[in-house]
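Summary for the funding panel

The consortium committed to producing paired sequence-structure records for every protein in the target list. Below we show the first two records in order, beginning with the earlier of the two.
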Amino acid sequence: MAKDHLSGKLAVILHADVADSTALVQQDKELAHARIQDAFKRFSTAIEKYQGHVVELRGDALLAEFGRASDAVSAALSFQADHAYHISRLKDDLRPTVRVGIATGEVIIDDNTVTGAGVVQAQRIEQLADPGGVCISAAIHDALSKRMPFDLENLGEQELKGFDYPVRVYRVELSTGESIPIPQQPIKNNTPSGKPRLMVVTIVVALLVVGGATYWIKKQEPNVEVASIERMAFPLPDKPSIAVLPFTNMSGVAEQEYFADGITENLITDLSKISTLFVIARNSSFSYKGQQVKVRQVAEDLGVRYVMEGSVQRAGDQVRINAQLIDATSGGHIWAERYDGSLDDVFSMQDKITRNIVTALVLTLATDLGETQPVNTGNAEAYDAYLRGWEQFRLGNPDAFARSIEYFQQALVLDPTYSEASTALAAVYWSATWRRWIRSDDMLYSIVVNRSREYLKKAMKSPSALTYQVASEMSAYFHRKANKSLIQAELAITLDKNDPSGYIALANALLKDGRPDEAVTAMHSAMRLDPRYPGFYLTRLGRAHFDLGKYQLAAETFERATKINPEDDRAYMFLVATYGYLGNMEKASASISAVNRLRVKIGKGRLKLDEISYIGWLGDRKRLREGLKLAGTESGYEWRGLVTGNGRNFVNQGGVFDVEGAIKIDVRAAKQLHDRGVTFLDTYITYSQYRIPGAYFLNWFRQGFGRQREVNETRLLELVDKSEDIVVYSSSENISVAAHTAAYAVANGFKKVYYFEGGLDAWKKAGYPVDTDKK
């Protein structure tokens, strides 16, 4: 009876197993089996899509048969790409990798069992493959069309156990920049002539994803205008390049724009972390927002091959996302899908879109993709608040900054572990600091800096590229040496090689480290990723040209920067010095007027030579100061930032403050006055942690965004009479605050004001006691 079920035929056999499965099971038996089963379930789906049939699935091995060699190879490569991406997202080390071998030969089918030389040969060849790799026999190699986008490496003649003759084996990979072949129509053997016919058709594969229909489409004829490689503004990168256009808000409600933008931004972020892709930065992609733009134009403007576009529709908690990927150089659709689900499903939707793009481009990610960092919370409400905050932050104005803080803080209340929200708060506080957009009824400059540091420290528990970017910029500003800033910038780039902000931070650190030639290279990398860059890119590039002594090139770069952003006082400051070296006094004078107009407007005061020694973010201070001097910049130091209405300015010489009318004292004199019972006023932000015993905390300044508020002297008059002696001090990082306080006290009639320059740091260094009892 058994013989009645036996049949022999020639077939293409695929054999796969899990590499080192025993070690995985020893780690965690149940989890290992679950993940292996999941892998083979996804592999089975790929096999069926390519007209294959899973014959046997046992433990850590899978056996399938195909009618065509090309289908077997395509199915294997499609699965390996998807699986590599899948396991890269796992948060532990239990990651099953699969080896695949493909051979052809006569097989015997007995009910559901397949045996024969072809099966054994596929199994032996599979054992020669690397984890995550695919190997094929010479017969499969010969059966593949030369037009197939595969790279085939000849591994030579191999001795296979159980075979009397050596077998030539090939390692197969997808060719760089190529897409995996789409599934073809099944072979038909019932044609009238009895001979196979060539059939060219358009294949539509219906899939169900998140409760909705999805479509994988490959059109034969271009449906969009084809981009010209010759007309591209930049050469195509040596790896697959993509621009993600802003997804259209189809909700019919304008206030849902933030949600569509947030989906787009997160997709850009997820894709940019894949090192085998070249991804255009958000800034350049979003320059097309609201425009009816052709794919061809985007590709030629930005120098990319692939363009992704889509739409988002949200009604309450229900979300629909449509997305499609187009090869601009052929005009054909590579892939298109629709996703339906609830707001809670949005994270898995974004993950599926990213994974499907990778699969569609068929990138070999097993070795090139490192650990990706978590960018989302599992809390949908926290995520929504974060997107709203990011929308405000992107507006780049003082009032929007204040609103963004509220949303980011709300996100943290909903999910205290939401690292991206902590990073965003660090970024907004730091941006407000250097822009002087400090808005609060009782916040000092030092408080804002401190909050940025606090949120940055919290974000460092699960850092992203943005976390390290902010850290690098802050380190470059506050530390004399660039070592720490350089390390942090390099970490940012490691986490996201496609984010231009990492290269900008690196350029800044390199400038401070006296390496302007390398800073030029870093800025060019940033500008290629973000071809429609804002003006400050040019300001930083111009600084590098300036430090290299290339003054004509620097002048041209700074001129372009000021045209893009006429409010950039830093670009004008360097432009003044550049004209000084070029001897162009007419343009230097005009630039001095421009920079002073901007600086007075934002409360910095007019540009003076002695300020240069105090600026933290500068690299070559000496070169800048000399250029400003040649341009006719006045000497001295002018500061109008915090104290108003007193008619006085204090002077900064090389970072040392002198306050007119106040008596500057050292730590020894301060100790003597303290022993006499003179009142000490502490302007240090961490007053509640450390302070000179008996000192009172004086929170002086109340500032607004873009406007000065009158200083409230009520607290001071409650503490001390104007006829009494007072000592004003702070920490080294808040020395200017103490100087401002002393200047205000002198200007408002306090008879004897001591300015303790060394402050708390000098006091502690001298070994004098401190306490933390709040007064």
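The next record, for a separate protein in the list, is shown here:
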Amino acid sequence: MQQTSPRTTFSLMLFFCFSSFLFSQDLKKIDSLQNELAKAKSDSVKVATLSSLFDEYIVEDIEKAKSYNDIQFEIARKSKDDYIYSYAFHTKGYYYFFIRKIDSALVNMKKSNRYAKKSGNSEMIIETNLRLGYIYNILNEYDSTLYYLNNTIKLSKQYNDKISYANAYLERGSFFMKHSKLDLALKDYLVTDSVLNKMNHKSYRTVSGLNAICGIYITLGDYKKAEIYGQRAKKMAEEVNESAYVFEAEAMLGEIDYFNKDYKNAEEKYKRVLENYIAVGNKNGEGKMLIKLGRVKLEQNELKKAVSYLLASLKILNQADNILNLLDANENLGRLYLKTTNYEKSKRYYNEALKIARENSLIRFEVNCLKQLAKLNYLTRDYKASSELFEDYASLNDSLNKSLNLEKVNELETKYDTSKKEQQIELLSAENELGKQRRKSQLTVFAAILGLLCIAGLALAFAYRNKIKTAEKIKELNAMKSRFFANISHEFRTPLTLIKSPLQTLQSELNDEKQQKQLSFIDKNSNRMLELVDQLLELSKIDSGKLKLILKEGNISSFLNSIAEPFEFRAKEKGQEFSSQIENQSENHFFDKDVIEKIVSNLLSNAEKYTPKGEKIEFHSNVENENLMITISNSGTNLKKQDLPKLFERFYQKSDQQQGFGIGLALIKELIDLYKGKIETSIENEVLSFQVSIPLKPNETENIVITKEEPQTIISQSTETDQDEELPVLLIADDNVEIRNVLKGLFAENYKVLEAENGKIALKIAQREIPDCIISDVMMPEMDGFEFTKSIKENELTSFIPVVLLTAKTSQQSHLKGLKSTADAFLTKPFNNEILKETVLHQIAERRKLRERYSRELILRPVDIAINSVDEKFLEKLGEVMNKQLGNTGFSTDEFASEVGMSRMQLHRKLKTLLNVSATEFIRNERLKTAAALMKKGNRNISEIAYTVGFNDLSYFSKSFKDLYGVPPSKYIED
């Protein structure tokens, strides 16, 4: 199937707005309606007739039309009838819509819908839902548009209103078309055609649907199918005597001729339609046809006539204020001036078209304008602007192509007959259902019994539904609560980082004992706040079902001893007695270290907090039947047995005078439940005890992941940076400017620091500057840290650059995800300044070791030198290029960069960072290493070897060889 440019869609969308504005008055019809109004006795007939008169006058005499609406309101106020009010507000909404006061139209249409519901008038309920969908479509409110149009489909099906059913699908098709979802639009238009065709219904709505289908096939380049639907549309428009739609169908057929390059026939059709539009005074139609004639002349290279048509269309359309036609005119003028190499004028018109497209969310047209503007800026040598525009174009075009599944669209035509049959079955089913209800109503006795049963059933169903709704509401509230805790916890971690980072700097710089004590107090409380934030975050994960147990093999007794030791030290400082009896275990078990640590630490912290001076804390643990048994008790408690059931409630406080328990114990209970364990409490002789049982035999379920122990990250000792060496380049990517400033302050002295506010910008900088190391936040707009790291590591330009991820997410799953994204290190916020500095230094130092290895290697070995598979392939490519060009004495660095597929600067930075050599040095070194290998074989003389490896100056070869190996070639052969 032939494809067309995005511009083709104009020939489609310009026909989708319902053109009630095109019709002139029908005097015979007006006389008939006036007579009907005079004879009408009931108010409902009067308001319906007044609405019809309003429709006849709205185009040519708006004040007269408004007077009919005023009469409707007079009748409504007198009768106080909801049905009549719904009619009056509906007409008023349409009036405001016509004079382009869309907000007022929306308000009145909503009132009409409300009164229609109160009156139970199904016809008006359906009509107002359809109109509301249309208005919201104009306002570009996606969800509301779909809600009202889907509601119209549902209601019209319920009340067996086939015309409204078809109209709703027609309107929804226009909605999908506006959002470039051609497959969904075509599907809806085919439903409209199926329903109306089955009814043998012929009206302007039927013609609209056929024109729409024709337009989609034009966009897809399937002109044969477009021709079939276009001819059907024209024939039906002539049959129903709708001249405006005859014009549209004729213009659509002209479009088919245009894209088939039959410009002569296209021009004839366009001119006929233009004459008709001028005759009826339709400015929008006139402007539209002038654009199409301009396009034809442009294709025929009659540029003066093309300019004349297009400028005339622009002048008319600026007055008519039609967005789509105005956009089309500007875009075609941009195309014309591009063709005549008047780039500045072309830019001006394309920019105007782009502005209109963006203001009205017309993505397809925005894509085309961006593409052309990128080309224009390239032609005028504004390469930066061209590059930015092309990136915007590529990004937007990708998202557009995802929504346009052409293969799916093509399949729809083959399913057309099936779609019609299914639709007919649905409608017949609705009719049969109504027939059954009428027959049942005749059987009075059975109806009465059935009624009683129905009432009982409905009562039960209503009660059950309420129960389900209540459960869903509780579930929804819990989810909202969990999201709130998760979000607020993440928000707290950033300011905590901003507090702790400068605090650590001050602690290392200040020597005053009093100031150190105050700083220590701040540090202690910020750590406590961080602990509370972590607890909130854990609870939110448990509530949302996202927390999993990560089981690793380890020695449980050694682990528990390491947890208890600091508590024992603190207890002695506070004058408390602390005893621990932890049964030694020779065998290892699988357990979640993070969860066990939280449970034990919180229980010990709680015991320490509420144990008076001189009282005792006891910690016992042993393993029984593959269960870890823990008992933690403290004496001197003032709790009573009746308080025990409430201990695990969040923020439980016994009285206003006593400190509450916060969320620590609640978190413990949730974690133990997650572990399928048990916790019990008891009080005997003022001794509060917690007995915990946790299973150690792993069971692989959806909440449990069993993994091997990961090696700990080794952090090397800091080494002095050689002052003579060029400063390493460090890129910092974080959307929080304060965090960036803190990090910049840490590294500015020893690094050249670059900054980026999100992953997308950081990726561009990394590809341009090739930094020595990158520090990136995980949660960023545009592109998050995980995606950014993946992009860095998969790109040959940047794959070797170490990436350190920083995150407020503390879970092991997040850590695991970070490592899976091939990050080189993963640290949590608030980070320790010294650990972060050492981590960066360690990563850069590791790369230096690889450089040293390269300088010692006689032959380039990618496997030994590469950091990952991408670098290995890059080094293999370098080797292949050098093998091919070894004897080429004129092989330059520019040619080298071109062969590798990089710019000269990018190749230089990559080689400098990866191997600590420039491109020139790399070429020379590889030639010298090959020469050394040949010398060792001993079957050639020095001058022959020098020429073989690409040196045409023997003295320069000798000097270079001595610089690299420390001895001249003759001495190297002797050794």
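Regarding this second record: The chain is about 70% helix and 10% strand. The radius of gyration is 39 Å.
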